[in-house]
Write a structure and sequence with these properties.
63% helix, 71 residues, 5 helices, mainly alpha
């Protein structure tokens, strides 16, 4: 998952720590996770949360509204 995120975002692995301090970084990470249902479910299981909770966090970070996956 990380390799694909880095490829799509253009962030170099050595820049992740610094990028994490920028306001939109976490929203971008959640955008990436929310873009793929299988990844969302796997991530939710890994962190012990329901996918709906991750969607709520995404909504809070991106200013609200329903998230529409590209399917």
């Amino acid at each position: 998952m990380l390799e694909r995120f880095l490829s799509l975002s253009g962030i170099d692995p050595t820049e992740v720590r610094a990028a994490a301090g920028h306001p939109g970084f976490l929203a971008g990470v959640l955008d990436h996770i929310m873009s793929d249902e299988a990844m969302l479910v796997a991530f939710a299981e890994q962190v012990g949360l329901a996918p709906a909770e991750i969607a709520k966090a995404h909504s809070a970070l991106t200013g609200g509204g329903d998230y529409q996956r590209n399917t």
